Amino acid sequence: MQRFLEAAQAQGMWSTPARLRTYGEYLYSDIDLRGVRLLDIGGGSGVFSLYAAASGASRVLCLEPEAAGSLKGKREVFTQVAEACGATGVEMRPLTLQDYDPGDERFDVVLLHNSINHLDEDACIRLRQDKAAREVYSKLFAGLADLIVPGGHLLMTDATRYNLWPALRIKNPIAPWIEWHKHQPPEVWRAIGEEVGLRFCCLQWTTPSTFGQAGRVLLGNRLGAYLTLGAFRMHMRKPA
User: Fold this and answer.
1) Which residues sit opposite 154 in a β-bridge?
2) pLDDT of residue 70
3) Residue 224 CB neighbour total at 10 angstroms
4) Average pLDDT of the chain?
5) Cα–Cα dist 50/85, whole Å
6) What is the DSSP string of 139-158?
7) CA pair distance 199, 40, nearest whole angstrom
8) Model pLDDT for residues 193-232, shown as the tens digit of each residue
9) Which segment, 63-67, 139-143, 177-181, is predicted with the most confidence on average?
10) How far, in Å, CA of 145 to CA of 139, rounded?
11) In terms of pTM, does the model score above 0.90?
12) All residues at 6 or more sequence positions from 133 whose CB lies less than 8 Å from its CB, including other chains
């Protein structure tokens, strides 16, 4: 694990090894990664795919359409970090969920780290007012459920739509780039997941890693999220 943490920092994937370890432990806090098959959808740099591999996952596939070229060098960095830490059984493919054909392959863990709204941004924006948009996400969640083995896990992280700063018509000073109208609260995702047969396990709120452990203790709740990033982690499972 330490080799991975140091390689990830060296390649600019995360600010410090300690912060990456802390966040990775939070992300996978109630899942034993040893021997699992993990699918990371919209995995960005692939840092959490590689974290899973370094934690003992036997098979890790990262889908990141931007790896096709819009972010130059992303695939090369992923490969370099994987080689530096000796990770095996990991790969990145430049595909969206909609373009991915799994064949007979199924996964113990499916991860959507800050990517659930990007599966179909237009539908996500209109989700609660437009029946057709909700149907789009119902089909996407049904597809996600089909990718998971019985007893397997669906992990989602994102920012909720509701935040103090946009309510005041002010850019959030911590994350001014967040387009809040393109997000939904976790209750929306839970309802759609349960409609396709997934079971809700837990919801956690978190704070920026720069706030440290004390910040998470004090602000790792719905009110704290409303004041900061609105960041949450939701865990659902497919019945065995």
Assistant:
1) 110, 236
2) 47
3) 20
4) 93
5) 9
6) HHHHHHHHHEEEEEEEEEEE
7) 20
8) 999 999 999 999 998 777 777 777 788 899 999 999 999 9
9) 139-143
10) 10
11) yes
12) 122, 123, 124, 125, 126, 127
* The pLDDT of residue 71: 52
Lowest mean pLDDT of 18-22, 28-32, 123-127, 213-217, name the range: 213-217
**Rounded distance between C-alpha atoms, residue 232 and residue 159, angstroms:** 6
Token representation of residue 14: 């995360």
Nearest alpha carbon to residue 61 among 96, 104, 91: 91
Count the residues in the chain.
240
d(CA 125, CA 151): 31
Largest Cα–Cα distance of the chain, in whole Å?
49
Domain 1-31+38-100: CATH superfamily is Vaccinia Virus protein VP39 (3.40.50.150)
Q: State whether the Cα torsion 41-24-229-74 is positive or negative.
A: negative
Tokens of 70: 């819009």
| Domain ranges across the chain | 1-31+38-100, 114-240
Half-sphere exposure of 171 (CA within 13 A, CB side): 6
Tokens coding 158: 């994102």
Query: Distance (Å, rounded) from C-alpha 184 to C-alpha 188?
Result: 7
Query: In the β-sheet with 231-237, what is the strand arrangement from edge to edge?
Result: 90-93, 59-63, 37-41, 107-113, 148-159, 231-237, 199-205
